[in-house]
Amino acid sequence: MKELLEEAVEVRRRTLEIIFSASRGHTGGSLSSVDILVALYFKVMQVDPLRPDDPARDRFILSKGHSVESYYAVLSRRGFIADTVLDTYGKFDSLLSGHPTRKVPGVELNSGALGHGLSVGAGMALASKRQNPGFRTFVLMGDGEHGEGSVMEAAAFAGHYKLDNLVAIIDRNKLQISGPTEEVMAIEDLGKKYEACGWEVTGTDGHNMTGLVEVLSCTPVREGKPTVVIADTVKGKGISFMENKAEWHHKVPDREQMEEAMKELDKIKKDIGDGK
Amino acid sequence: MVNDAIPCRKAFTATILEEARKNKNIFVVTSDARGSVTLGEFARVLPGQFVEAGIAEQNAIGISAGLALCGNNVFVCGPACFYTSRSLEQVKVDVAYTHTSVKIIGVSGGISYGALGSTHHSLHDIAVMRAFPDMQVYLPADRFQTEKLTRYLAGSTEPAYVRMGRDAVPDVYSDIDQFTFGKANILTQGSDAAIIACGETVFHALEAASELLTDGIHARVIDMHTLKPADSETIISAARETGHIVTVEEHSIYGGLGSLVAEVTSQHYPVKMKILGIPDENVINARPLEMFEYYGLTAGSIAREVRNLVRGDV
């Protein structure tokens, strides 16, 4: 578990470094997804960077495609792309687009327009059911993304076809670009919406690595039902002055803020080392 | 030859059923349109390769992309009007941009639905689909060409959009030589003018060419069954060898076949052109053939436009 916690610190570090170097990025949402991504890629999912096209691999879709920086950082740390490629982010003709594309090894879907990922994930889960490669499909969505009606079309489909090999994870950081989700356009009761579509609804602290690994490893929770994990998260998690602030949706830190952020990450890493 | 029995959509469903029996990786997805597409038999015979998505076109396209990303060749079928409007972003992102092996089969396209109104017409589909990088666009002219095209697509991994109509249309072809990928069909030889058509207007273009013969005008009729990738070579040859081009399409005069031909000729061999199609308006309430007549897409009107263009030179 200590390794996973340290990994999450390194992912946050690389995430901020590439955002700073590119002078662009979705800082807050990238940071709120980090622990979920680390749990999936370093513990839960069966994936092999040496065989990114293995038909039996577990599938992951970043439906909230704007949180791409921490996704790239995780793919790099996990060995799908070289660390030097990360440094090209934001540079002319980089392999790395501002939203995920399948040109990048490990990426399963070109995303960035919200409300697409759950449908494509359900299609993958159906293929797995009908053709028996036996993999699981994980789809990470934003909470604000639930304003898109297509998400509910996909939820109905997955419930109807009893896709118990499909896991939706909602990064419930409670903020979208204009402010709190419940003020911009109320999305609650999220759990009840999924339940009504035939899903098993569960939740966890989206920054508690032990809890995340446990809940994500135990999916499907119930036979014959897709699972949704509502992960309670903090936008900007890990950097005190970025946490819970909508303005950090796509704000880029300046040099001083970067130094401060790195100090905070150093402190977190030291605490992990000290067993705190 | 008159064909009252088999619309293109039925030729498609019969053919895709045959192909899917041979290939377990062919899937058919629909959105409560198994009746209008005529997929009932497919659903009964190959339930494991059939997916009903309900009235949810956005999701149907996403599901299709997901199936395709797992190594399948997916034909998602339903009214052209919905797949080219409601789910356009899914088509753009999940199919074209992600480059998935999804074939969007838009049935009852153009003004097939007659008096049902603009909600049900798709007169913008060529324009939007051909503007997406990597998306192929096809409009077969009759049941024979539909069958040949379907067999071709069953073996292709490219994203594609196919539009076909609702009613049976007169046969343009017999069972040979109707479709070669990337090559437009020259149906009549002629050097006075070229009539370039696609889909259901090909038949009317041929009739117009026959009528023109009585005036001593020899028109070259070209079936541009593939709008993208377009056969520019055949267009340029027609421009160079005839000097007059009339295009005929069941589509808005903006962005479709006429625009495509003008894009090619204006940059390679400018010639006099007339673009026949549906004007920039919501169409009248009428039966499809009545609408073709009203908007000048049948033989008499096409022939008149060719005469005007050719005689304008004299």
Q: What is the CATH homologous superfamily assignment of chain A?
A: Thiamin diphosphate (ThDP)-binding fold, Pyr/PP domains
Question: Any guess at the CATH architecture of the largest domain in chain B?
Answer: 3-Layer(aba) Sandwich
The domain count of chain A comes to 1
State the low-pLDDT regions of chain A, or none: none
CATH superfamily label of the largest domain in chain B:
Thiamin diphosphate (ThDP)-binding fold, Pyr/PP domains
Mean pLDDT of chain B: 96
The residue-averaged pLDDT of chain A reads 96
Q: What would the keywords be for this entry?
A:
heterodimer; A: 276 residues; alpha/beta; Rossmann fold; five-stranded parallel β-sheet; two-stranded antiparallel ribbon; 10 helices; 7 strands; globular; B: 314 residues; seven-stranded mixed β-sheet
Characterization of the model:
- The complex is a heterodimer of chains A (276) and B (314).
- By secondary structure, chain A is of the alpha/beta class.
- Helices cover 43% and strands 12% of the residues of chain A.
- Chain A has a single domain (2-273), classed as Rossmann fold (3-Layer(aba) Sandwich).
- In chain A, a hairpin with a 2-residue loop joins strand 4 (175-176) and strand 5 (179-180).
- The radius of gyration of chain A is 18 Å and the shape is globular.
- The mean pLDDT of chain A is 96.
- Chain B has 314 residues and is α/β, with parallel strands linked by helices.
- Chain B has 2 domains: 8-163, Rossmann fold (3-Layer(aba) Sandwich); 185-311, Rossmann fold (3-Layer(aba) Sandwich).
- The two termini of chain B are 36 Å apart.
- At the A-B interface, helix 5 and helix 6 of A face helix 4 and helix 6 of B.
